[in-house]
């Protein structure tokens, strides 16, 4: 079935292929933007003395993960045991499994991992009991009230760290994820993030561990991690995933390297989906041939590079609001920028990496 | 990479495997419910004298599509040229491509199809010009004002049918899709649907075609198609897709064979996702290990078979609101029902078909 990958021509991709000859819709990675983002983030981490464990769940792609390792990534992050196993099969030798692992099958997957330096999170004695027989390196997870996983109470976190120390696992440090804070304003988010980071620092300083790891930092607030935790008596490990393609939506708005960014560097949106205009059935409306099957919709609708606005998606269609006098025609091809790379990557098993003129330079595969 | 399919154990699935040994999350198909739904819908179509072209886009699974054909499906429906090619590779010999096909690459895919009886939709002279060199069987598409694709104007539809007749393609009938009407009430939806069906009948009656095809009918309102169009001087072809697994959400609410159904038959929800409780970080909150990567969220959140309610999904986590005194524990495994099968199927490359006790009877593969 290799030839039946959505977004590739029947018979596969030949040298010199151009994506305008592909059956649409097709997702593409802009070769230059992808390289720029890989270089930019690697350089930022190196120059600020922080380690980088880019989140593999964003792409689950051997080609991209290997480029991240080639740019000096210290580890790759996974969200599930199954992802950890896939990353190990890509050749990754150090993995942060940034989640609790509690079910029998997932624990067995970890037990079967080849020679990998594995870090796991725990946020309860119950989760510790389940994972500690594997003797992993353990990071105690802190969380925010009203947030996701992670201990809300710092004394309980310290007590859990002591439990880790007393058992067969190895206490390695502190973890959290700050990317899902949702205050009404960006300033409010930054305040919540900084509060969490200060709690991490306080806990890390109390751990009976030499050179602890303090890992936090998605693609939205990693500048705060560097500002608050950089230079401390620990190793800071960022886990950003979405930086690798960036976007024209949520991350472009939130990232320190986005359009309105807090930093001086800029990431470039590298992931696009191309689709034709299928129909102009009434004034002001056009339908394009991409839908929920092809592009993320959970953090904002796709953004056409055309005088049009996406108002809704069905499984295989996008509704475009267009001006009364629009010259958009049936058959016209539109490039869409996306919001939230993770949930666009997982809709494609192969993604061409393209030059500006649409010539395919390379293919990226995904394993979701 | 065959062994690294999400939802299967490392090393693959062996005889007698039980999904409670799989790394979670895992999606499953209830073997009995799946068989029940296949039989129920096939029997309904046969007894009402309508043809059935189940929508292949729901599952894109060779195993399920072949069972649909085995139950007497007249054709299989596709949403894109690429899907049509994949369905042909499954052995499907008659395909309704229920969409416009306008881009060069997709037209080439259709040109390369093996010996398939292909039906295409057109809703504009522009779309006809693009597809007619392939000499397909053409269905003129009607649509509702404010809706998706399809001609709003019946005179224009008749004129387009005449254009088809005058060109190299073969005029075959009329198509529409009624499943996306969105009146404030179910009664309002049914009125809109019936109006569209009467327009289809009027157009079909005027076509210069012996025995025209009139095709419409998703999984929500197919009873109205049978009631309004059944017994006319045409062949009625239903295109339901979601019936095959049904759900506990949108389709259970809308389908004539759902919980509050208008018909006497009942479909059963056959598609589930299983995930463990990862964390209980504060009173009233539990996190489970499934997210947008694993289950649809576009037509309602997953429904746990537990005293809990899903309030939100991240990529890999579900937030569960639980009662103050909940005895849900870290490591407990919960079965989730889903809303909208299409966007759950596309998150899995393999889905075990299981007996009530979790024993794997079979595997279903998907090609999205």
UniProtKB/TrEMBL annotation, chains A, B:
- Extract the GO molecular function terms from the UniProt entry: lyase activity
Reading the lineage from the top rank, the first entry is: Bacteria
SMART domains from the xrefs? D-ser_dehydrat
| Alphabetical list of Pfam families matching this protein | Ala_racemase_N, D-ser_dehydrat
SUPFAM superfamilies with a match to the protein in the record: PLP-binding barrel
Say yes or no: keyword Lyase present.
yes
Q: Does the keyword ATP-binding feature in the UniProt annotation?
A: no
Per UniProt, residues of the D-serine dehydratase-like domain are: 270-355
Going by the UniProt record, its keywords in alphabetical order are:
Lyase
Q: Which PANTHER family does the UniProt entry name for this protein?
A: D-SERINE DEAMINASE, ZGC:162816-RELATED
Q: Give the record's family classification.
A: Belongs to the DSD1 family.
| Protein's name according to its UniProt entry | Alanine racemase
Give the organism, scientific name: Paractinoplanes rishiriensis
């Amino acid at each position: 079935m290799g030839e039946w990958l959505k977004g590739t021509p029947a018979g596969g991709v030949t040298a010199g292929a151009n994506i305008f000859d592909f059956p649409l819709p097709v997702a593409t990675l802009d070769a230059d933007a992808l390289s720029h983002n890989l270089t930019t983030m690697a350089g930022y981490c190196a120059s600020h003395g922080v380690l980088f464990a880019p989140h593999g769940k964003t792409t689950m792609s051997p080609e991209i993960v290997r480029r991240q390792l080639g740019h000096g990534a210290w580890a790759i992050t996974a969200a599930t045991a199954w992802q950890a196993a896939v990353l190990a099969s890509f050749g990754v030798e150090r993995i942060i499994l940034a989640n609790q692992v509690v079910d029998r099958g997932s624990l067995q997957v970890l037990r079967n991992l080849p020679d990998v330096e594995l870090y796991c999170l725990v946020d309860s004695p119950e989760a510790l009991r389940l994972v500690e027989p594997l003797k992993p390196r353990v990071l105690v997870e802190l969380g925010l009230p009203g947030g996701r996983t992670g201990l809300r109470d710092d004394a309980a976190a310290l007590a859990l760290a002591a439990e880790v120390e007393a058992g067969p696992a190895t206490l390695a440090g502190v973890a959290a994820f700050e990317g899902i804070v949702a205050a009404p304003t960006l300033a409010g988010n930054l305040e919540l993030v900084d509060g969490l980071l200060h709690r991490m620092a306080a806990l890390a300083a109390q751990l009976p561990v030499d050179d602890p790891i303090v890992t936090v930092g998605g693609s939205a607030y990693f500048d705060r991690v560097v500002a608050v935790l950089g230079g401390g008596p620990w190793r800071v490990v960022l886990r950003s995933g979405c930086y690798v393609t960036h976007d024209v939506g949520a991350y472009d708005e939130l990232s320190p390297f986005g359009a309105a960014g807090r930093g001086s560097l800029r990431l470039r949106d590298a992931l696009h989906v191309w689709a034709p205009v299928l129909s102009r059935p009434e004034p002001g409306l056009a339908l394009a041939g991409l839908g929920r099957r092809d592009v993320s919709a959970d953090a904002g609708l796709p953004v056409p590079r055309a005088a049009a606005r996406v108002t809704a998606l069905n499984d295989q269609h996008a509704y475009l609001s267009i001006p009364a006098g629009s010259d958009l025609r049936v058959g016209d091809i539109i490039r869409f920028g996306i919001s939230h790379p993770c949930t666009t990557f997982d809709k494609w098993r192969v993604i061409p990496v393209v030059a500006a003129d649409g010539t395919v330079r390379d293919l990226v595969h995904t394993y979701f």
